[in-house]
Design brief:
The chain has 296 residues and is α+β, with helices and mostly antiparallel strands. It has helices spanning 2-14, 33-50, 90-100, 126-129, 153-156, 194-200, 206-213, 241-246; strands at residues 52-63, 66-77, 82-88, 112-117, 120-124, 134-137, 168-180, 183-193, 220-228, 233-239, 254-262, 278-280. It is globular, with a radius of gyration of 19 Å.
Length: 296
């Protein structure tokens, strides 16, 4: 079960110009009604203007009655098309193994790492391959065009989920003012329509936004968002249950993803693996030692 569950959980996670640093001590303005809707719908544009940020993500899940938690952290640089992320599934798989009365398979206690540079994706995932080297995926190596969907930092950058705010409508509820990592924010409860969010995305980004948000299902999804005085989302919480159901994991699985964003506009150091550390994914296909060969 663990080996089959690992790639299914990874998929949504992967779907998963610098400006002046926002004022950390700015007084937050509480907006209501139409002003709140406009502020939330405009938040993705404010994020785009920042260009860079760091993030942390927590996925809280219930799988067949078991409560599980998955953690990830990383940074993105939209200006240069780079993103890095480390996903820690160790505690989650330890809990699953203990509840099943089996030992955690080799590599499952090690984090998965991902770096995206332009349209090239680098992954190091001992839980799937047992290998220590990086594996690269490039659209041209896969016989696809360089602008193929599924490649590029935007596809895997968790901040892409902030595009959902373009679909906020109705009357967002002001929960109150709260601090997120020392920054004063307004906490809103709102609903967003996926079709509206996709339709309102910039034309040049619409296909990518549709790919990312399409995993959430269709219709209207409730969310919580914490926005600072500069209009930047500092925390976003979304129900991911429908997405997991669409992956065939059953209706008994529920999940809530909470993301925090910080250090907007700050320089980020994203290290791309050197060529001598990398093996192309296409070179592993058909190999007995290939990527995922032991994930039966």
């Amino acid at each position: 079960m663990l080996r089959k569950l690992a790639p299914a959980l990874i998929v949504p996670l992967l779907a998963t110009a610098a400006c002046a640093t926002p004022a950390e001590d700015a007084s937050v303005e509480v907006r209501t009604g139409a002003e709140a809707v406009l502020a939330l719908q405009s938040a993705p544009d404010v994020v785009a203007d920042a260009g860079t940020a760091s993030f942390e993500m927590v996925m809280e899940m219930s799988v067949q009655g078991e409560s599980l938690t998955l953690d990830a952290h990383g940074a993105y640089d939209a200006t240069n098309g780079r993103m890095s992320m480390e996903i820690d599934m160790g505690a989650m798989f330890d809990d699953l193994a203990a509840s099943s009365g089996v030992e955690t398979p080799d590599g499952f206690d090690e984090p998965m790492q991902m770096v995206v540079d332009g349209t090239t994706i680098y992954m190091r995932a001992p839980m799937l391959s047992g290998a220590e080297e990086w594996v690269s995926l490039d659209p041209e190596d896969m016989g696809m065009s360089s602008d193929a969907l599924g490649f590029g930092a935007g596809t895997y950058d968790p901040s892409s989920y902030l595009e959902s705010l373009r679909g906020v409508s109705g009357e967002p509820e002001v929960v109150g003012t709260e601090e997120v990592r020392g920054v004063e924010t307004t906490h809103y409860e709102a609903s967003m329509n996926l079709a509206d969010a996709i339709a309102e995305a910039p034309e040049e980004q619409r296909a990518l936004v549709e790919e990312v948000l399409g995993q959430l299902g269709d219709g209207t999804i409730p969310l919580d968002v914490w926005v600072d005085a500069d209009g930047l989302p500092r925390r976003l919480a979304m129900d991911m249950g429908e997405m997991f159901s669409s992956l065939g994991l059953g209706s008994e699985m529920s999940a809530v993803m909470t993301m925090e964003f910080f250090d907007y506009g700050q320089p980020v150091d994203i290290q791309v693996p050197s060529p001598d550390e990398v093996q192309p994914f296409t070179g592993l296909l058909g190999s007995d030692e290939g990527f995922g060969a032991d994930a039966s």
